[in-house]
Predict the 3D structure of the following.
Amino acid sequence: MERVDFTRTTVPLRARRDPLVILQKPLETERFSLVCLDEDFATDTYLRWLSDDDTTAFLETRFAPVGDLLQLRHYVTSLLASTDSYLLAIVTNDTREHIGNIKLGPINSHHSTASIGLFIGSKDWWGKGVATETIAAVTAWAFDTVKLAKVCAGAYASNVASIRAFETCGFSREGLLRSQVSLNSGARDDVVMLGKVNPHA
Ligand SMILES: CC(C)(COP(=O)(O)OP(=O)(O)OC[C@H]1O[C@@H](n2cnc3c(N)ncnc32)[C@H](O)[C@@H]1OP(=O)(O)O)[C@@H](O)C(=O)NCCC(=O)NCCS
């Protein structure tokens, strides 16, 4: 794999080693910058997102609640130290507001595959194409720079917006895990498995 620096200017060069390639500068989309998420992003706003029932309804993080800023910093630090995942903050280009996160990982370097997961914490931004725009950018980067052969995602079947965003970005439904997860209501839900193969791999 190609190796380049994994840091934005304010993030010290550290922690990112094989098998990760290194993110030299933010990934840019039309409206957003995707930057390496470090402790600076561990704010009260981010903490509130993690305790919001709507935001976490389809996320596994709801089973491991982060109670305070110190815990959030530890969580972010542990992710920064990860050698198989990129956690990126989604920041608006015009107001420099942190509105959510998108993750590529864990990367399986044997098979050149990885998952993509995301959440838009700021509900003001829901339904405005953030997921579609950022999934497209991360997928292109995963293929062109990280040189992955395939990216995957899993979404609760009820999470129509998430599934739709991945499909718009060219992901196909590859499988259905029946009654795989438990919803907050107590009902069970299927999980839709999605994938996109790098056409140039
Ligand atoms: C699910 C989530 C990622 C969607 O992000 P988003 O930026 O609002 O999605 P987009 O605006 O790109 O919309 C994607 C598609 O879903 C549709 N959509 C948006 N909200 C919808 C809703 N509530 N119900 C049905 N469809 C919806 C959009 O119209 C769009 O479809 P289109 O391209 O055919 O018009 C976001 O709401 C979120 O982060 N939720 C909480 C965490 C989460 O569920 N993460 C995903 C885990 S897999």
Observations:
- The first strand starts at residue 27 and ends at 28.
- Residues 1-19 have pLDDT under 50 and may be disordered.
- The beta strands are 27-28, 32-36, 86-92, 98-108, 113-120, 150-156, 172-182, 188-197.
